[in-house]
Amino acid sequence: MASSAGTSILTFRAPPSPPLASAERDDDGDWLLIERIGRGDEPAFEIFYKRYRRYLERFVYQITRRSDLVDDVISEVMLAVWQQAARTQRLARASTWVLGIANFKSLQALRKLGVTTGSDGARDEGGDDSLAERVLEQDNMLNVALRFLSPEQRAAMELVYFHGLHYQDIAKVMDCPENTVKTRIFHARKRLREVWPQLSGEQAGVSE
Description:
mainly alpha, Butyryl-CoA Dehydrogenase, subunit A, domain 3, about 0% strand, globular
């Protein structure tokens, strides 16, 4: 049974998580909000913030693995939305645009802490424990396994597995060539296959 579960997760064919459906259900509406924000419409900004707050929470946490950074990063993301809305063109989904900002701000926050891009094994070192629990409550073993990846690999896997994005869209979010996305996902899957037997064994020990 563990083998089939591992295969399913490592091929990443699961459907998108519920937050995606609520955030992307009305992409036209989101872009209308962005247009209004670009004209300085504060009520539209408040609606947009409430719509995307929880959507971004998981993504930012998965990249940084620091629950104490999540609120600050999301504030930076929303500030960027306010500042950039007037000059942003509709070239992708609204959620893709916002995730791109969140990816940049998350990596920027890690660099400020001295966490270099490409490093792996980031751990949660403080902040709201309930946030970490919320993020880990779905597909727990995969979430635990993601800590063995670099921030860039975690972002790519998060976008594939939990947000259901295609490589082309992930390349837009991560501001890199599509081949780079494929390479990151290839190495992430390879690394997960290496650590999966150990994690499966630990899980079995806990269940016993």
